[in-house]
From TrEMBL:
Annotated source species: Amycolatopsis dongchuanensis
Domain of life of the source: Bacteria
SUPFAM superfamilies per the UniProt record, alphabetical: MetI-like (SSF161098)
Membrane topology: Multi-pass membrane protein
UniProt protein name: Sugar ABC transporter permease
UniProt KW keywords: Cell membrane, Membrane, Transmembrane, Transmembrane helix, Transport
Membrane-crossing residue ranges in chain numbering: 35-62, 94-115, 127-148, 168-188, 228-246, 282-302
Location within or outside the cell: Cell membrane
Family note: Belongs to the binding-protein-dependent transport system permease family.
Record has Transmembrane as a keyword: yes
Sequence ranges assigned to domain ABC transmembrane type-1 in this UniProt record: 90-302
A Pfam cross-reference name: BPD_transp_1
Keyword Ubl conjugation: no
InterPro entries per UniProt: MetI-like, MetI-like_sf, UgpAE/MalFG_permease
Length: 310
């Protein structure tokens, strides 16, 4: 009996396998999984690499790809900040974002709210909203050029109403607005489809209870759907902000080439023109560095304003 008791006690008090030590560092393969290695290499080569190259070129004097570059120090940046064309581009980009981005996101949210109410034909509507994102930039430019040129569709409609038309793309007072209109047409539907995918997750019973309590569409949209989807809308806003800031060069190039004067020259178009037209690579990448910093600051501001509050 004593022997059996001793065996039982020994069985219950036998030390188990050693657990992980407190504060022990994880193994290297746990911190860097092998499956993520290709993605990390791709990111380092094709994402970080171009940024490093841009910074290096921004400090070089390089008047063309076939010319041996030389070190310029801060000369390119002093030229950039003393250039009136640069500050004109800054102003145009600021107007483009401050005016165009809020209009795009608000209209996209309202359109997404309408879609998630599941009106008749809402499934077809989702596909139709995505069409502008499927049309190439040259095709989009051709459509808007046909609408906005002096003999185009818009002026034809205005003249039929007894109003005077104008050369929308050649008038410095309307050219930038026309560029913003093109970007709104391209981005509202795409953003609405993305936001609608998030709004679909809102519990229908909660919405129905709010309607029973007397809440109308406007209150439900901004009092329920907006707070719930606010963080996701922030992500969509950042994507469209980056698109406006970095990708407007193609629209400007196809429709106005920065003119008339510099009224539609944006920062991204200035980078293109200095690099590929004037072959001033150092100046171009100095502007690119400024553009990169503005992009980071803008994303941080959007994230702070549209972060989740629930």
């Amino acid at each position: 009996m004593t022997a059996l008791t001793d065996v039982a006690v020994g069985a219950t008090t036998a030390p188990g396998p050693p657990g992980p030590r407190r504060g022990a560092r994880p193994k290297l393969r746990e911190r860097f999984p092998g499956l993520a290695l290709p993605a990390l290499v791709w990111y380092a080569v094709f994402m970080i690499g171009p940024v490093v190259a841009m910074i290096v070129i921004g400090f070089l004097s390089w008047p063309g790809m076939l010319v041996t570059p030389g070190f310029a120090g801060l000369t390119n940046f002093s030229r950039v900040f003393a250039d009136e064309n640069f500050w004109s581009a800054v102003g145009n980009s600021a107007i483009q974002i401050v005016v165009g981005l809020p209009v795009m996101i608000v209209l996209a949210f309202l359109l997404a709210f309408y879609v998630v109410q599941k009106p008749r034909g809402h499934r077809v509507l989702r596909y139709l909203l995505f069409i502008p994102a499927l049309i190439s930039a040259p095709a989009t430019a051709m459509v808007f050029y046909a609408m906005l040129n002096p003999d185009g569709l818009l002026n034809g409609v205005l003249r039929s109403l007894g109003l005077d038309g104008t050369a929308w793309l050649a008038d410095s007072s309307t050219a930038l607005g026309a560029i913003i209109a093109v970007e709104l047409w391209s981005g509202i539907g795409y953003s609405a489809v993305l936001i609608a995918s998030r709004l679909d997750s809102v519990d229908a019973e909660i919405v129905q209870a709010a309607r029973i309590d007397g809440a109308g569409d406007w209150r439900i949209a901004w009092g329920m759907y907006w707070p719930i989807a606010r963080d996701f809308i922030g992500v969509v806003t950042m994507l469209q902000f980056l698109s406006m800031l970095f990708n407007s060069a193609q629209t400007v190039l196809l429709l106005t080439q920065g003119g008339p004067g510099t009224s539609t020259t944006t920062l991204s178009y200035l980078v293109y023109r200095k690099a590929f037209v004037e072959t001033d690579l150092g100046y171009s990448q100095a502007v690119g560095i400024v553009l990169f910093v503005l992009g980071l600051l803008g994303m941080g501001a959007i994230r702070r304003v549209l972060r989740a509050t629930h």
